[in-house]
Amino acid sequence: MSAAGTAGLLAGSLLFLFNFSSTASAAEPAALASDNWIGAQACAECHQQEYQAWRGSHHDLAMQPVSDAAMLGNFDNSSFTYNGITSRFFQRNGGYWAETDGPDGKLAEYQVEYLFGVYPLQQYLVNMSGGRLHALSIAWDSRPSEQGGQRWFHLYPEENIDAADPLHWTGPYQNWNLQCAECHSTNLQKNFDPASKTYATTWSEVNVACEACHGPGAAHRSLALAGKLSSDNSGFPVALGERGGWAFPEDQAIAQRTTPLPNSQQVESCGRCHARRAPLGPYHYGKDLLDTHRPALLEDPLYYPDGQILDEVYVYGSFTQSAMHQAGVVCSNCHEPHSNQLRAPGNGVCAQCHKPARYDTESHHHHPADSAGAECVNCHMPSTNYMVVDPRRDHSMRIPRPDLSVMLGTPNACNQCHTDENPEWALSALRDQGVNFSDTGSHPARSFTWARQGDGRAVPGLQEIALDGEQAPIVRASAITALGNFTNREAYETALQLLENDDPMLRWGAVRALQFMPAQQRFGILGRHLQDPSTTVRMELARTLADIPLAQVEPTSAKSLQAVFDEYVANLGSHADMPGNQLQMAQFFVARQKLPQAEKAYRAALQMNSQLLAAYLNLADLYRAQGREDEARQLLLEAEQALPEQGNTLHALGLLETRAGNTEIALQYLARAAAMEENGVRHRYVYAIALQDAGQADAAIRQLQSLLRIAPQNPDILIALVTYCQSTGRRVEAKRYAEQLKKLLPDDRGVEQLYQSL
Fold first, then answer.
1. What is the β-pairing status of strands 151-154 and 246-247?
2. Is residue 21's pLDDT more than 60?
3. What integer is the mean pLDDT of 246-272?
4. Which residues pair with 342 in a beta bridge?
5. Residues paired with 138 in a beta bridge
6. Residues sharing a CB contact under 8 Å with residue 575, sequence separation 6 or more, in sequence order
7. Residues 112, 219: Cα–Cα separation, whole Å
8. Given this model, what pLDDT does residue 127 score?
9. According to the model, what pLDDT value does residue 14 have?
10. Mapping DSSP to helix (H, G, I), strand (E, B) and coil, where does residue 152 land?
């Protein structure tokens, strides 16, 4: 889901009580005729209180046809200039129009068909060719003027987005059908035709109405009219009433559920839209989220190493890390689901379960009463602005950790308020209040940081996290996935255990962690899991086992494997308008040795997004593998022109020229790639190897020594240092590095032999 996809769903309240259903635009796609979907008006017959709470909510106003009452932006011949282009907003013949740069970069007039979101910003959708609706990147700031609102602004103010950029409003990532529609309308059917590359998108209701969350309501209504509703048969495919009862145990300041949480359907249902995720085929009400979508794990660049939000991740991934989620808290404990309002003002939401006498005191929050620092959310749920003006709170509800900021550079809530101070000040202030952290050196964030750097010191910590049943599944799945990047015994043993876990997120992570194994061993372990009940797990199995020849496995297993492959292709194909899906399809076809299909999919991805770097790099690698070196070089040069100064492109060009024997130009490319590398060490390591191969052994050793200071337990760096020092007669240094390597890999026979040779 793009930045254009959540404008009206997550922030404050601004009520507009009007019936927009009678003002449908002539451009509105035809509503689906279905006996199963009955509409909000039918629900209101029995559920008037819930209906009235929903009216005017952000779900109600998630998407609206144009009307004078709903329009917030200034279309009174106003203008806004961005990147040297002045756009104009005006009214004509009762309609609202924008004159702005089109797909060719030239000014053109577009009529606004729909309004998207309401507060703190409103976006505007216009019709494009092929049944597409696109969201203008110039949006209206609907906040009060005293807060800086009531103005036009661009969603990418720090960038120069022109018509050639995929983020331009006419590009693929501002396409409503592709990016936004599923979460802003009810019973949305995208109906993309890959052959004609057109849409015939339909919906039951234009906004997020009752059935968007509860599922089709016809069966429920029939049971109600017949007086046959029961606790065992509501007629709905999904049950969302999981708020439960809560009570304070004797002498305890934190409430607990009076009965266990029966299931996770509510959080999973909300996660359909309030998550950073990828769709997996059609949506099915009542299924686990991982059966219909693949949520993002806690990985770079979406999250900081400690799990705090970095990019826009839409709540689910944060909340499922939290102690609240582990304790059985669900969304409706804090949010009234129909109005989208908080259950109580101020600290009252937290006070439902945290006794104010213990927690809403200066001795706890260390700030004057009624100050910003006394508000629970400002310390435990700090906000980050996305879409320029939309503050989203981090729902992992963690304790501020300036000690981790000092050690790892992660943010902390203290300094997000005290912006004129540094983390050392914040840490000292907490210590003065008697707050000391005993796990600074062993905090999971340290292992995740090392993992991102390719540092072997991460391994023991990642294994411990992955096997720790007290940790949230999303944290454990992120740990086992990261552990798999080290291709070691710990990853293998840990993955074997988690493959048998009841939680599909852990099984998914375990499959990902085993992709480093040789093909036949990999299939020997994973082949018996092809009937896994979770769609996400099966899709990961298809990707991980894509290189297994069907002819080399016994017939029953081959049939199961083919079924998983077919499901994978079908699910990706159902969203063939997504550049990322075309990229995944191409990678799958490469593994299956279906190279013409792979090339076609790579080309389709680049046609949709001319700046999709991974498609350039992978297609160039495909050409190289086929002996088409000139085409690979030309494609990489096109990538360099489309996305200048990208380390991965320069690295790929360096490798290509190395294979071609053009050593001098290869070293230039590799040196530039190495100089640009900030996370990880691969480009700098390869540059060191290239220096050695070019006869510059001393320069190679210096490069490796600088890398070792960054990643002191990276075995590849140590092996190279041992080898190069030994070959240049620096035997004492070679032995010292070999001793470090032996400590790092005590059971490795090759390392032992290398050490003995010295």
1. unpaired
2. no
3. 94
4. 335
5. 154
6. 190, 192, 279, 581
7. 37
8. 94
9. 28
10. strand
- Pairing type for strands 85-92 and 107-116 reads unpaired
- Closest by CA to 299, choosing from 479, 434, 495, 539, is 479
E strand or H helix at 125, and its extent? strand 121-127
Distance set, CA 106 to CA 102, 103, 609, 610, 625 (Å): 6, 8, 20, 19, 41
Distance CA 274, CA 268 (A): 9
Rounded distance between C-alpha atoms, residue 60 and residue 41, angstroms: 12
Name which of 199, 138, 194, 176 is nearest 2 in CA terms: 176
User: Residue 34: its pLDDT value, please?
Assistant: 59
**Cβ 58 vs Cβ 119: under 8 Å:** yes
Give the closest residue to 316 by CA, choosing from 300, 306, 302.
Answer: 302
| Residues linked to residue 63 through DSSP beta bridges, in sequence order | 116
Confidence of residue 752 (pLDDT cuts 50, 70, 90): confident
CA-nearest of 470, 541, 471, 479 to 508 is 541
Q: Taking Cα atoms as reference points, which of 495, 472, 497 lies closest to residue 483?
A: 495
Closest CA to 490 of 470, 461, 512: 461
The DSSP letter of residue 192 is E
Q: Is 585 helix (H, G, I), strand (E, B) or coil?
A: helix
Mean pLDDT on 290-314: 96
429 pLDDT exceeds 70?
yes
* Beta strand spans in 520-567 (E): none
C-beta of residue 4 within 8 angstroms of C-beta of residue 116: yes
pLDDT at 455 over 90: no
What is the C-alpha to C-alpha distance for residues 211 and 578, in angstroms, rounded to an integer? 26
Residues 6+ apart with CB under 8 A from 602: 582, 583, 586, 615, 618, 619, 622
C-alpha span between 381 and 449 (Å, rounded): 22
Residue 472 · residue 322 · CB < 8 Å = yes
**Ordered DSSP codes for 327-387:** TT--HHHHB-TTT--BSSSTTHHHHTTB-HHHHSSHHHH-S-TTSGGGSHHHHHS-EEEET
- Alpha carbon distance 60, 184 (integer Å): 9
For the segment 500-512, the average pLDDT, to the nearest whole number, is: 97
Q: Read off the tokens for 561.
A: 């494997």
What integer pLDDT is reported at residue 452 of this predicted model? 92
Q: List the structure tokens of 214.
A: 């509860």
* Residues recorded for the chain: 758
Q: What is the pLDDT of residues 179-200, one digit of tens each?
A: 999 999 999 999 999 999 999 9
Answer yes or no: are the C-beta atoms of 652 and 621 closer than 8 Å.
yes
Decide if 479 contacts 447 (C-beta within 8 A).
yes
Please give the Cα distance from 683 to 329 (Å, whole number). 44
H-run or E-run covering 153 = strand 151-154
Nearest to 181 by CA among 465, 491, 687, 577: 577
Distances (CA, A) of 76 to 73, 136, 277, 413, 424: 9, 17, 39, 42, 51
Angle at 560 between CA 555 and CA 565, to 5 degrees: 120
Please answer whether residues 32 and 204 qualify as being in contact, where contact means their C-beta atoms are separated by less than 8 angstroms: yes
Radius of gyration of the chain (CA): 28
Q: Distance (Å, rounded) from C-alpha 755 to C-alpha 744?
A: 12
Integer CA distances (angstroms), 594 to 270, 607, 621, 752, in order: 38, 20, 15, 42
C-alpha separations of 563 from 95, 550, 558 in Å:
51, 11, 9
Q: What is the DSSP letter of 652?
A: H
Distance between CA atoms of 17 and 124, rounded to whole angstroms? 20
In sign, the C-alpha dihedral spanning 189, 173, 144, 66 is negative
Q: pLDDT tens digits for 218-232?
A: 999 999 999 999 988
3-state DSSP call for residue 753?
helix
* Tokens 């050490």, residue located: 755
User: Which pLDDT value is given to residue 755?
Assistant: 83
- Interatomic CA distance for residues 525 and 514, integer angstroms: 9
Share of the chain above pLDDT 70, in %: 96
